[in-house]
């Protein structure tokens, strides 16, 4: 059995790093995780191609991956948010951080992979992978593959509904976020000279001076989609054209954590946890659950068999 098949994935999301405040993410479904705090209202969807994780009845794929723009992508983190205070464009970041050092667990080829990532995929990534609490953050303006600027006063549901192509029907319908704007959000893009094409916008905001000129406004909704074909959550590997890095072989037990963060306050706005669960642990839990169910069913049958029959109703009791 391949190493990655010894584990299954569990995805949760919440307002901070405390897992007590997290909800299970229903991967590849239309059901979002909704988060509301004093700083943000947010709605999050995660899609993973060839998903084999929790909850156990999760779909293995999503209509998202049938969209022409995403046929080769391996995952997507799509989120809509509205801030409750203005945040400067150079201070709102998205990325990964860890509670403990990982410098002794980095696989061979990681430094090469990171240089490739920074040179060819996202030059705005900054961080310290050798720190005691390592991190890699990139500005939302320059790192999100798709960015939609909503209209002030719009609800998050209205924003996501108008953010792109709709796939599916009814409660199962999803929206594939596209680059653009809605309502007076179009004025924002024009005033800030934001390029229409996503790659051009990302290159534009690779320059710090342009990020500093932008403000994520209080009460204005934004929709983002972060995706790529390089991180394979099915095999727990980074697959770049120049190298494949099998993450699971060097995993130290820490979750992979994605965080939307305000660098002005140094506080997370929301956190998404990708955690590996040993498959044999789940098998043991299933066996225990089945045993408990059988005992409970047996107790019910025993009670039913030994209990006295209920007396027949008296004619006087019947109207």
From TrEMBL:
Residues 289-304 have a biased composition (Basic and acidic residues). Coiled coil: none annotated. Residues 9-276 form the Domain of unknown function at the cortex domain. It comes from the Eukaryota. Pfam families: Duc1. Residues 285-319 are annotated as: Disordered. This is Domain of unknown function at the cortex 1 domain-containing protein. The lineage of its organism: Eukaryota, Fungi, Dikarya, Ascomycota, Pezizomycotina.
């Amino acid at each position: 059995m391949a190493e990655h098949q010894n584990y299954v994935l569990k995805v949760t999301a919440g307002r901070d790093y405390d897992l007590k405040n997290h909800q299970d993410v229903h991967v590849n479904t239309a059901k979002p995780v909704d988060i509301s705090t004093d700083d943000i209202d947010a709605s999050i969807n995660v899609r993973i191609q060839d998903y084999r994780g929790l909850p156990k009845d999760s779909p293995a794929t999503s209509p998202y991956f049938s969209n022409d723009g995403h046929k080769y992508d391996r995952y997507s983190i799509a989120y809509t948010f509205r801030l409750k205070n203005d945040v400067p464009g150079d201070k709102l970041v998205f990325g990964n951080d860890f509670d403990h050092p990982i410098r002794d667990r980095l696989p061979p080829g990681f430094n090469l992979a990171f240089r490739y990532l920074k040179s060819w995929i996202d030059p705005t990534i900054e961080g310290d992978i050798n720190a005691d609490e390592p991190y890699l953050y990139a500005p939302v303006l320059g790192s999100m593959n798709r960015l939609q600027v909503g209209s002030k006063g719009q609800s998050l549901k209205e924003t996501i509904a108008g953010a792109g192509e709709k796939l599916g029907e009814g409660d199962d319908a999803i929206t594939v976020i596209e680059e653009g704007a809605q309502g007076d959000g179009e004025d924002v893009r024009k005033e800030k000279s934001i390029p229409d094409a996503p790659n051009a916008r990302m290159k534009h905001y690779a320059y710090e001076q342009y990020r500093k000129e932008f403000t994520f406004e209080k009460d204005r909704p934004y929709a983002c989609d972060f995706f790529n074909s390089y991180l394979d959550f099915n095999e727990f590997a980074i697959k770049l054209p120049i190298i494949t890095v099998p993450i699971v072989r060097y995993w130290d037990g820490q979750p992979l954590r994605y965080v939307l963060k305000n660098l002005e306050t140094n506080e997370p706005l929301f956190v998404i946890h990708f955690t590996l669960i040993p498959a044999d642990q789940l098998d043991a839990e299933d066996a225990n659950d089945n045993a408990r169910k059988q005992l409970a069913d047996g107790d019910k049958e025993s009670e039913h068999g030994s209990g006295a029959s209920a007396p027949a109703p008296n004619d006087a009791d019947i109207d």
